[in-house]
Amino acid sequence: xxxxxxxxxxxxxxxxxxxxxxxxxxxxxxxxxxxxxxxxxxxxxxxxxxxxxxxxxxxxxxxxxxxxxxxxxxxxxxxxxxxxxxxxxxxxxxxxxxxxxxxxxxxxxxxxxxxxxxxxxxxxxxxxxxxxxxxxxxxxxxxxxxxxxxxxxxxx
Amino acid sequence: xxxxxxxxxxxxxxxxxxxxxxxxxxxxxxxxxxxxxxxxxxxxxxxxxxxxxxxxxxxxxxxxxxxxxxxxxxxxxxxxxxxxxxxxxxxxxxxxxxxxxxxxxxxxxxxxxxxxxxxxxxxxxxxxxxxxxxxxxxxxxxxxxxxxxxxxxxxxxxxxxxxxxxxxxxxxxxxxxxxxxxxxxxxxxxxxxxxxxxxxxxxxxxxxxxxxxxxxxxxxxxxxxxxxxxxxxxxxxxxxxxxxxxxxxxxxxxxxxxxxxxxxxxxxxxxxxxxxxxxxxxxxxxxxxxxxxxxxxxxxxxxxxxxxxxxxxxxxxxxxxxxxxxxxxxxxxxxxxxxxxxxxxxxxxxxxxxxxxxxxxxxxxxxxxxxxxxxxxxxxxxxxxxxxxxxxxxxxxxxxxxxxxxxxxxxxxxxxxxxxxxxxxxxxxxxxxxxxxxxxxxxxxxxxxxxxxxxxxxxxxxxxxxxxxxxxxxxxxxxxxxxxxxxxxxxxxxxxxxxxxxxxxxxxxxxxxxxxxxxxxxxxxxxxxxxxxxxxxxxxxxxxxxxxxxxxxxxxxxxxxxxxxxxxxxxxxxxxxxxxxxxxxxxxxxxxxxxxxxxxxxxxxxxxxxxxxxxxxxxxxxxxxxxxxxxxxxxxxxxxxxxxxxxxxxxxxxxxxxxxxxxxxxxxxxxxxxxxxxxxxxxxxxxxxxxxxxxxxxxxxxxxxxxxxxxxxxxxxxxxxxxxxxxxxxxxxxxxxxxxxxxxxxxxxxxxxxxxxxxxxxxxxxxxxxxxxxxxxxxxxx
Lengths: 156, 782
Fold this sequence. Notes:
The structure holds two protein chains of two kinds.
Chain A: E1 2-8, E2 11-17, H1 23-30, E3 49-52, E4 55-58, E5 71-73, H2 75-78, H3 86-94, H4 103-116, H5 122-128, H6 139-155
Parallel strand pairs in A: 1-5
Antiparallel strand pairs in A: 1-2, 3-4, 3-5
Chain B: H1 8-16, H2 21-27, H3 29-35, H4 37-44, H5 48-59, E1 67-69, E2 75-79, H6 88-100, E3 107-111, H7 125-128, H8 137-157, E4 164-167, E5 170-173, E6 176-182, H9 183-187, H10 220-224, E7 240-244, E8 254-258, E9 268-274, E10 277-282, H11 285-294, E11 296-299, H12 311-317, E12 320-327, H13 331-337, E13 340-348, E14 360-366, E15 369-374, H14 379-390, E16 397-401, H15 413-427, E17 431-434, H16 437-443, E18 449-458, E19 464-475, H17 488-492, E20 526-527, E21 530-531, E22 539-548, H18 561-578, H19 583-590, H20 594-607, E23 624-634, E24 641-651, E25 657-667, H21 674-693, E26 723-728, H22 742-745, H23 747-759, H24 770-778
Parallel strand pairs in B: 2-3, 7-17, 15-16, 19-22, 25-26
Antiparallel strand pairs in B: 1-2, 4-5, 5-6, 7-10, 8-11, 9-10, 12-22, 13-18, 14-15, 14-17, 18-19, 20-21, 23-24, 24-25
Helix pairs in contact in B: 4-5, 6-8, 14-15, 18-23
């Protein structure tokens, strides 16, 4: 076990865990955050996605020791029901979810990608989303919400 | 009074809503009814166990079990039908708000908790029929509450009930809205003490102001900002983490466990075995995962699996349980003497629910009481089967439905609840279990594999004069009901699945059963003097053979309906092409069910369907070929009507099929939430595309080999998906029917028909993978 300081959603947390523990378990169990979720444990689906230093990463395969100094944002860190982030608002406006379990992967992957590629075209957005799964197949509404956010972001 | 377990989140939500736990209990009729079992037992002279079962049933007839008016006049409603991602929480909230004339935010819906809600069976049971949206269950309760409130107001105001109506949480004089009495004044914080009134009328859909409008999901903002509590987020004090160690092969038995193999691992608490079940419990999730991986377990070899390549032929040779749906007795003669005849065989694979989140449950078994938090679709059945598993009285088990990952049928939600319950009992502490991706996929209850033979006789004009269907499907286990052995975890723990009982020949049918769409829409379905089918073909034989499966199986979105409809709706276009008829017009020649005819015409109209036979005459044999296909079905024999037209592009060099456009016309009776049903139709249509093009459970000699998202393919969010256009039929005067499974039912056939239209090649086996399409194209005669 080792003690780590983690900067998550603007707050610093101290945890005492096995350094090899995937970040996901530290976030969801030690810190009891609800955003990142276990879907596959193999970086295949995206449900565990968080943003680390501006990049979307799969927390289920990221040892906690590798992100000890990073700025980490989870889905709940992006906004609140009362004051959602613009991309979250786009998802609410488009009613772009069914069970909602996949949303960390969908929303955070899209946000991190558009932060780095603000002028991305829809095919480029689709390419960025090609490793993210939604088994309710809310795909059309999700892509619509993401492209809506992208165009608002460009015009802001 | 038994302590109702509540997750910290639920308690916090209650507090936010201005209810203390105590006030909540006091203010809620259903809770009082629900928890007074011991009193009821004494009164009725029943053993507590019997009384408990009876109480759940009796409660359904009492208004207080469904609706309570809080002291502040807000409405609390209790439902036995849960949110699975399909929007049911929102539409049920709309239902109560509509009938009781209050805004949506004055309704608080409590769903599926054996302590407090009525037993309504499986949420998607009875073919996902919307039980609460007609004159039964919650709908009837809300109507009863409205009538009761009007009656109370009539007495209070001294005005005949006929002159009163409801508006914004009050009963008002229809002619003078200033004369009013609020629900809070009438009954706030007290119980109704009346039974459901079968004569209570609901508001007519034409009067609706809340129902029938596109209400945003009430849980959407919480989902998108990760405030919503899923069962995966349930954390209770002192909770440990468990992990099953499933056998390495189907049929493998436990020989021994080497406990020393994990004794040095930090946090390991206990190894638990029972029959062929092995599980570990540790302090932290990562420790449990490592312990399960490192634990050395000796198993016998598996019992072996039939060859996948030969499986469809193998099914035909197994002992079967036969069901004759309809038999006019003259099919062989009619086919033999027909001017022309056509045959084809269709194959549909085992497919997974494949929930995006692996299944999870938390159980707390200690001090003679059990609480289980699970995403089960049936909390009462899970209470019973868990009690059996644990060897405890059912009335000591409390099951609390907590949201899960979308399930689309029976995913691992019940199976993992058994894991958690057994492990918690073994350690006497609360245990959370979330399955590994592999354990979810290798052991879930797959949708059934089918092989289906079709044959028709045609007259000289190309009309169908006889239809002969014979199908084989494989199934084992299912929803647990009272049987833990119907799912893998319970089976490994030593319980048997429902026994397979061969039956050949089938008894003669006593009535026409349209369930599962075993019969095609084009037969009259005559049994005795009643014709229950949707079509006109009078010479008909429909025979199904159920065989035992090597895997656990259960309902998967449009169960059996989808497989049968693939065969029927592909075959009807094969016949239409054979007689060079337009496939839509050819269907209409053979249909009699007006609602089915209406959706066919609505879909064709929206699509802009121009009459011509398939295949498309001017397509080239290389490069990308466009095509169109159609499908329709009275789903489950009349629980939602749907028709769809599909456009595809087939890349004839790679075998890649791209679905470009899907037009879906749906008749599900009065629509509670138009945006909600559109979201379901879109999702179901695309789910259907994924199942049609990509999804198949694979296996080798010993075990399932589709164990992750590389080996079980699904279409990612980035996949270019077809535009889905929905047409909702306006049907205010008929009962509501199921909607969430309608759109998926026809997709495989519509896409297969479009591939034929594009290329002249018929693919009769799902999924239509590029390899399979390419091979079929290569075999095409030039």
